[in-house]
């Protein structure tokens, strides 16, 4: 994830638009701690994947009991990377909606 542009060189209306976009992203971004907590409590049922929006994989985990536990066990190593990917795509979508290019 790239840092936002230097706000001191932006005109006021651009700075406010950037702040609004970053505020909207902060409201929808996913927290890795929450994903790990859900993995601990509902990992076999795919709760952490529902939280991250991976509905198809969540349903597969739900009906196979996390691949009989194997899929659930392997997921612990990939949760942080998946949270970063989800947040990156959500941030890009919000910035695009505001017409801001992420450098």
TrEMBL record:
Coiled-coil positions: none
Q: Which UniProt keywords apply?
A: Glycoprotein, Membrane, Signal, Transmembrane, Transmembrane helix
Report any Pfam family annotated for this entry. Answer: TM2
InterPro entries from the UniProt entry: TM2, TM2D1-3-like
Q: How does the protein associate with the membrane?
A: Multi-pass membrane protein
Outline the extent of the TM2 domain. 29-77
User: Does NAD appear among the keywords?
Assistant: no
The regions listed as transmembrane in this protein's record are 58-80
Asked whether the UniProt record includes S-adenosyl-L-methionine among its keywords, one would answer: no
Q: Where's it found, cell-wise?
A: Membrane
Q: What is this protein called?
A: TM2 domain-containing protein
Q: Which organism is it from?
A: Actinoplanes oblitus
């Amino acid at each position: 994830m790239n840092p936002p542009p230097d706000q001191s060189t932006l005109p006021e209306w651009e700075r406010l638009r950037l702040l609004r976009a970053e505020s909207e992203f902060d409201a929808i971004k996913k927290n890795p701690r929450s994903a790990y907590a859900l993995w601990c409590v509902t990992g076999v049922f795919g709760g952490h994947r529902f939280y991250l929006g991976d509905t198809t994989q969540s349903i597969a985990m739900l009906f196979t009991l996390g691949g009989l536990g194997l899929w659930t066990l392997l997921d612990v190593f990939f949760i942080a990377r998946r949270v970063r990917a989800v947040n990156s795509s959500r941030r890009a979508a919000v910035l695009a909606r505001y017409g801001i290019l992420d450098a």
